[in-house]
Structures are given as C-alpha cells and as structure tokens.
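Chapter review: from sequence to fold.
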Amino acid sequence: MLKEILSITGKPGLFKLISKANNMLIVESLVDKKRIPVYSKDKVVSLGDIAIFTETTEVPLSKVLESVLAKENGAVCSIDAKAENQVLRTFMAEVLPEYDKDRVYPSDIRKIINWYNILINNDIKIFTKAELQAE
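The token string follows.
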C-alpha cells in the first residue's frame, strides 16, 4: 500500500501517485488534494522503500507505522511532532524498542509522526501487502 505514497524533497506532506509519463509523475497531495507534476530532477521516495535503522538490521517503515497504529488504537498520534527530543525518543522506544539511537534522529521521528498522521487523516490504515491480501 505504501508503494504508491510518495515523499518529495522540498514539498511538504505526502503525495499519492496518480499517473506516470516519460519524464514526470502526476501526484496528488494527501493534504490539500491538489494535483501537481513531479519531474525527473525532483527527489521522490516511496514510503514502501524506507526503512528504519535498528541495532541489528533495518525495519521497513510499514512495520513501524503498524506499531504506531497499534499503540494509538488507530487514532491520530498522541505525541506532537514538535515535542522535545527526549519525548520523541521515548515514543520511538515504545514503538520500536531496538531502534538505533545513534542513527535515527529526532527529525526522523518527527517525519514518521507527521506521515502517520497524514495517512490516518486520509483513512489509510493498511500499510503492508499481507494485510491488504487478507481483506
């Protein structure tokens, strides 16, 4: 499910992939529903390709978002993304206890919280293919 949700460097929020063309993508903002072109010069990352560092390996973002979903009972995150760094680190330790404290920065945790809230506000609560196939 997260493969079609994109983060674009320099543009706030998340975007849903609508269409592909030769040297561009057409995306729709999940925040304001506006459609815009994204060109090959822009850095675009699918949320399905992002992983979070742990002490031993990397955990896909989808698994982290599932943990947040379970912790928050499907509601918007109770922690403000602008909270102090120690609050963010405590939250991340609850969601992913083995996360690498040296390589996962508070700014990364803020992004995870913001992205989670955007997805929940758009009623996107299925983060993995396994859950999608089960329905």
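Two observations follow directly from the output. The first helix runs from residue 61 to 71. The chain has two domains: 2-47, 50-134.
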